[in-house]
Amino acid sequence: MTTATVALPSTFSLGLARGRVELRRFFRQKEAVVFTFSMPAFLLVLLGSIFDGTHEGTGVSAGQLFAAGMIGSGIVSTSFVNMGTGVVFDREDGTLKRLRGAPVPAGAYFLGKIMLVAVAGLAEVVLLLVVGALLFGLKLPATPEKWLTLGWIFVLAATSCSLLGIAASAVARSATGAAALMNLLYVGFQFISGVFVTPITVLPDAMVDFASFFPVKWICQGLRSVFLPESMASYELAGTWELGKVALVLGAWCVVGVVLCRLTFRWTDDR
């Protein structure tokens, strides 16, 4: 008599199941959902309303300039901040320890997190596009090429920032500490990367040079190329959009992020 062999679920199918759990858990936390989605939109409305006027010779308002950059800020929020705090929360409440002891591969856990980042990130982009269009006249990309640029920037931005969020989660000892750390880094980089202070050319050179080593500056610069006319490229440091360098820097941070995650990721609080 032979014993039938039961095929175990694949990592992909387990990851999809884990993703559904992540999404349900996230959207049940109403305060976290409101804060995650409303903060970039609130800052956009605030900054776009305070700094009025049009940039000379471009026809682009301050609100449109802020809106293009804040879309990048929203992607960073839903990837870096969300991933960093989420991993620490899972470690603190024992979720990671239980998953490690179960026949669930690590890849399935991270695939579930990727699904959460993708859904939340896309929702954030749509929300900021609606706010930017209704309040400040931000226009959607006019050509297939610009839609394609928006797509690859979103993928590279969400991937690099998610990986860096996972790596940064190793520093925090608690979910409360993680929230403080991630939001401190998030807000700080918005200032030095030309998101809250525009155009970026008004910032001190040393500050911009430092910001240029990290993804946020390049994410927002790339997205400005998608939503703003070519005349606005002159407001960038190099006088051009530098999309090739945007792809290179974000791709490099994806590689660096993988290395950092492998070196620093912890399943438990044991130090």
UniProtKB/TrEMBL annotation:
Molecular-function GO terms, alphabetical: ABC-type transporter activity
Protein's UniProt keywords contain Membrane: yes
One GO cellular component term noted in the UniProt record for this chain: ATP-binding cassette (ABC) transporter complex
Signal sequence, renumbered to the chain: none
Entry keywords, A to Z: Antibiotic resistance, Cell membrane, Membrane, Transmembrane, Transmembrane helix, Transport
InterPro entries (UniProt xref): ABC2_TM (IPR013525), ABC2_TM_bact-type (IPR047817), ABC_2_transport (IPR000412), Nod_factor_ABC_transporter (IPR051784)
Residue ranges of domain ABC transmembrane type-2 in the record: 31-268
Membrane topology qualifier: Multi-pass membrane protein
Record's subcellular location: Cell membrane; Membrane
The family this protein is said to belong to: Belongs to the ABC-2 integral membrane protein family.
Name listed for the protein in its UniProt record: Transport permease protein
Species of provenance: Amycolatopsis taiwanensis
